[in-house]
Amino acid sequence: MRLEIHSKAIQWLLHPSPHSRTWCQERVIKCKAAVLWEAHTPFSIEEVEVAPPKAHEVRIKIVATGICRSDDHVATGGLVWPFPIILGHEAAGVVESVGEGVTSIKPGEKVIPLFAPQCGKCSCCLSTKGNLCINNEIGSGHGLMPDGTTRFTCKGKAVHHFFGTSTFSEYTVVHESAVAKIDSAAPLEKVCLLSCGFSTGYGAVVQTAKVEPGSTCAVFGVGGVGLPVVMGCKAAGASRIIAVDINNEKLAKAKELGATDCINPQDFNKPVHEVLIEMTGHGVDYSFEVVGLIETMNAALASCQNNYGVSVMVGVPPAGQMITLDPWLIFMGRTWTGSIFGGWKSKDAVPKLVADYMKKKFVLDPLITHKLPFNKINEAFDLLRTGKSIRSVLVLSDS
């Protein structure tokens, strides 16, 4: 009898019936996730239940996930999101199962989840003027899947999603419009940065601002997103790239990656925009604010050439705060704009960015200063908050 059961079990594993495959795809997965129960508290590693993907959804086994300042904004109350929540949006993984109607992605394929989706059907996706799909969750903050429900449960309570990705979990569920298939040879613990940090910074230069060769640029904040801005300026052929930061160690890293000048505002007894105008004679052609503070946003705008200078907001603005500025800064001709996910149309661009990385058109290794196991997530956030890391990557499983 035991031999008969064993034989049948082996046959089921090797040649599962269509019915058994359906059961496999519909099963709830129990796994570890970092749950944030409320703001200003540490992440708690919990066992969660991850529901199967519904129609046009994909369940992903997360292999590696980066620690981004946007996650910290929620953890520290700077961005308002419902709790409890599973944060994380910069990651890479392998498809575990797909829901009904998903044809572009198959189980076993390597993918990158996209916090900025691309449905390919809305007016924004069809336009050449922008990249922010109408179906994004960036401005809504409701923490649910498109159908208004969640796929996460912990201790009998529903747990909210973040940016439609929630990658601080061994398994997550995303909409098909929020996932991109990538090269099967790509190292997931590195290309996970293309899910947010690198793509956002690099794209702000080459896609949003379209910096021309010979330009003068200033980069306010040279962390995990600001350094890719520096790299983008160098790739675009900027003749002068001025890195601005109060962390001298990050300024040194910026110098390594292409900055021609580095200034620490704390070394001067005058506003930093005045320093930059004196350095350049007329202000910079392009400035990039990658800090997310009202003061640096104003300084970045004021540092631009007064008629044709362009300032790009890249850092996430603080919630509930308003900007006051001298209207002459705009009236004279400066352009002030923002850049979400570097202006890339995500599903189209991410596979190409991965391909460019594989062809060594840019590097990612210098940006990854720490690689930690998943259960060290609180340590990774401490490194971010104390300015000791550029990008920490949490490794959840083998790729």
Structure description:
The protein is α/β, with parallel strands linked by helices and 399 residues long. Helices cover 28% and strands 22% of the residues. The chain contains 13 helices and 17 strands. The protein has helices spanning 2-14, 18-26, 69-75, 123-126, 188-191, 197-209, 226-235, 248-256, 272-280, 294-302, 328-331, 346-358, 377-385; strands at 29-35, 44-50, 57-66, 91-98, 110-113, 152-154, 157-159, 171-175, 179-181, 216-220, 240-244, 261-263, 286-289, 310-313, 335-338, 368-373, 391-395.
Measured between the Cα atoms of the first and last residue, the distance is 39 Å
Q: Share of helix among residues?
A: 25-40%
Unreliable parts: 1-23
Total helical elements: 13
SS class: alpha/beta
Name the beta content range: 15-25%
State the gist of this model.
With 399 residues, this protein is an alpha/beta fold. It has 13 helices and 17 strands. The longest helix has 13 residues, at 2-14.
